[in-house]
Fold this sequence. Notes:
Blueprint: E1 4-7, E2 10-13, E3 18-24, E4 31-39, E5 46-51, E6 57-59, E7 67-72, E8 77-82, E9 91-99, E10 102-105, E11 109-114
Parallel strand pairs: 2-11
Antiparallel strand pairs: 1-3, 3-8, 4-5, 4-9, 5-6, 7-8, 9-10, 9-11
Amino acid sequence: QVQLVESGGGLVQAGGSLRLSCTASVSAVYIDTMGWYRQAPGKQREFVSIITSDGSTNYADSVRGRFTVSRDNAKNTVFLRMNSLKSEDTAVYYCMVRARGSVYWGQGTQVTVSS
């Protein structure tokens, strides 16, 4: 079982920035894809961004150009740098890791953007 520990959420004004972090309890050698999803109140969980083991990235259209995903394999950690935040970015953000053929989720961290 892989444990994921997230941090970095909080309250920020529109136009501000935050950085989320997620550390996995398994070596990066076993990790394929790392990334982020989010769920706003009353909505389904949606894709935000992923980064593969070879560093390839993908973003939802709604965040492309504002958010940047990165990973530190030495620390088994994935990051999400969020700039130019908007009120519609308010959600619980979940870390996702695919390792050893299974998908694991973090507990979620709240991001609230005030307008």
